[in-house]
From TrEMBL, chain A:
Family, as annotated: Belongs to the mitochondrion-specific ribosomal protein mS29 family.
GO cellular component, one term: mitochondrial small ribosomal subunit
One Pfam family hit: DAP3
Entry-linked InterPro entries: Ribosomal_mS29
Keywords: Mitochondrion, Ribonucleoprotein, Ribosomal protein, Transit peptide
Protein name (Swiss-Prot/TrEMBL): Small ribosomal subunit protein mS29
Subcellular location: Mitochondrion
From TrEMBL, chain B:
A GO CC annotation given for this chain: small ribosomal subunit
Pfam families reported for this sequence: Ribosomal_S13
Alphabetically ordered keywords of this record: Ribonucleoprotein, Ribosomal protein
Family membership noted in the UniProt record: Belongs to the universal ribosomal protein uS13 family.
Biological process annotations from GO: translation
Name of this chain's protein: 40S ribosomal protein S13
UniProt cross-references to Gene3D superfamilies, sorted A to Z: 1.10.8.50, 30s ribosomal protein s13, domain 2
GO molecular function: RNA binding; structural constituent of ribosome
Amino acid sequence: MSLSICTGCLARLCITQRAPSIPSRTFSTTNPQAGSPTSRKIKSTKAPYRSSLTFNRSRRPRVVPKLPMIGERKALRKRIVISNTNALEVQGLQDLNVKNMVDETQIGQMLALNEELLDHLRDVRAFKPTQNWNMFRKPSTLMRRESVELGRAILDVSAGRAEERPRTVRRIIAGERGTGKSLMLLQAMSMAFLNDWVVINVPEGQEYTIAHSAYAPMSINSERQLSPDQTAQTASKQSQGSQEMIYSQPTLTAELLQRISKSNENVLKRIPLAHEYKFGDYEPKNLYSLAVVGVEETSLSWKVWQTLWEELTSPSERRRPPVLVAIDGIDHWMTLSKYRSADYKPIHAHQLAPIRHFVEVLFNQNGAGQLANGGIVLAATTGSNAPSVPAFELLMKQLDARTRGLKMGDDGFPMPQPYKTVDQRVLNLLEGSAELNVQGLKGLEKDVEARGLLEYFARSGVFREVVSERTVAEKWSLAGGGVIGELARFGSRLRV
Amino acid sequence: MVFLFSVNFPERRMVKKALQSFFGIGPNVSARLLAKHHLHDTCRVGELANTQILEINATLTEMKIENDLRRQVLGNIARLRDTGTYRGKRHAMGLPVRGQRTKNQTITAWKLNKIDRKL
């Protein structure tokens, strides 16, 4: 093979000629081996013989989106984050305790909830997803004038029990949306836990009426569940114009018992039963094991609840702790429920056994509200999700008028319009509820309470303004006169 | 899996929807059935006790649904035709039965109005 150049003189070697073995490339960070231009196959654009030229959708692999697990989205929606490690730690923040819960100098101060209390409150479902706990290092609540007053009521009842003068406080907390009604219940529960009370909480009244959980008819006298044949017989008796049917809600009662047993475990375990009970194979020894029976056997839950309530509220030789009953969203309990009777007629909320029980306790109907060991029955109306219930609105007006000293028949005492039908079940609650009063919650006081709240926001790093008289006044006015839910918006998002 | 009226339903299926899958049961009848057996709106098939399943099956057996109802509807149409009524004739011809105009298209009538109507 002859060379193209003379090896002796290299005369014809042209050094400017490009060397063929080194392909030049533009600058790239890609691995050169990956994209070798020579190895790339050129796809023929020619259609194969007798094949369709149209784009066939069915041959493409079907992309099935992965759906979230059952209940995952709801869990995310209802998630409650109680603390945030990114938030600044507020120096000198005191914990809520038995002493400072009645201390007037604490008005306008934020008080933190300690770890043990948090566990109890979480178990009893005291927190709501709409409250902005997730913006702060440690969950804390503002001591308002009403909170201190509530603390005093709790201490009074505790003292009354010690002196064998049991006292029962009944109260409905009413107010506009965002005025802190649910938080007042939370504070009451915290204070009750601190004083070793038994706390019974209904976190959402609506759950009992929207027909999302099981219900079953009960006989009226014994209030026990009926078999289907008995149901038919009782229903026929009802149609003959006798008493109304009562319905149990086993699942919700079991959930209630679970909340009670879990959050009050230490207190309930210390209390032995006054009588001996037998539920199937279960023979509970103390109040805790009694409540657990209802949790494990849903069909027995209503019977167990009745026994537990009787044990807690009846006079006994051994001292029992006072009881706090907290109910949120009571408006939903004053109208027809979404449940239907066997003949497809709507069931009134007062025909549902748990609701009937709590309403009787709150309004002291048929003597049900007498708690032998003392206690507080607190109910809050709902502001954001209130159903339109004219009868309950009228009842609230009547209760309000009564607190102002008016009596039925006086001038200015609100009465139903004569040509309108009003739910008499609700209006009849006024009788017997002499001790019940309505606490109207309004906005915060500007100089003490609103300032304390904004200072806490500023010290937590979510409110980046100087807290002066001017800013406090501005934010107080912007929040509709210190409505705490509106003020909390200044602490719900970081404004840079 | 749970058998209701000899149809197998997955446990996550709502009873309300399971009942509506039968010919002759719509939202209204389904809601009434639920109320009759004291079942709540969001009750799932898996939550039913055995006694409740038996009761529902007994109620469904008494009702005229599925093939019985289909047979009745077809029988009604056949009776109209056999007695020579105007409605029967219109069914047989695949034309609108209830006085609708036929100047323009009557697609629904072509599709549905037959003696052996598909149900």
